[in-house]
Design brief:
mainly alpha, Arp2/3 complex 21 kDa subunit ARPC3, globular
């Protein structure tokens, strides 16, 4: 596995970091939805759909969604724990998607799992002790892990896979390549 970054890759990483931050900021600004959906026990982060694009554009996306997560989580109430472990979850998720990219849907499903396990099962339950899902009582660790996993599956394997399919069309791939971007096809 050869990971080399040139100036375009660094710029693309910056674009994805910025997109991750901006999409989360816009989502947080939506009244009644925002902050709980970005930092709460049901983290349906729409920006996580960008993680799926690692199957198309590779390691620059991995770096970008990881760095973007560091910045977003710096503004959350959990602080350093979320900055480190949330970003590690994005790093692992996007890396798995790159490695499994030949089977895009499977890659997106598998890529959503580390977020649920690391964020939901690892630490979020300590801050948001969710004790039931749809009326079923369970340990807060399990409830939060299930909640975050479902949210990640919606964002990464649902929205992200749809976005990946759209951007993987031959005409769009050709346009990306004509502008000097490298794709993993």
């Amino acid at each position: 596995m050869n990971i080399e970054f040139d100036a375009r890759d660094v710029a693309l990483s910056g674009v994805f970091a910025g997109l991750y931050v901006i999409v989360n900021a816009v989502q947080m600004a939506i009244p009644g939805v925002g902050n709980p959906a970005v930092f709460g026990p049901v983290q349906l982060r729409v920006a996580d759909c960008l993680i799926a694009l690692a199957a198309l554009l590779g390691w620059p996306v991995v770096a970008g969604v990881t760095a973007g997560c560091v910045v977003v989580n710096a503004f959350g109430m959990i602080g350093p724990v979320d900055m480190v472990f949330g970003s590690v979850a994005n790093l692992i998720a996007a890396s798995l998607i790159v490695l499994l990219r030949k089977r895009k849907f499977l890659a997106c499903v598998v890529g959503a799992l580390p977020i649920g396990i690391i964020v939901g099962g690892g630490y979020l339950w300590l801050f948001f002790p969710l004790s039931d899902i749809l009326g079923v009582s369970m340990h807060p660790l399990l409830a939060t892990m299930i909640s975050i996993t479902i949210s990640s599956l919606i964002a990464v394997a649902g929205l992200g896979y749809a976005l990946l399919r759209i951007l993987s069309r031959p005409g769009i791939i050709g346009s990306l390549k004509s502008h000097g971007l490298k794709t993993l096809d």
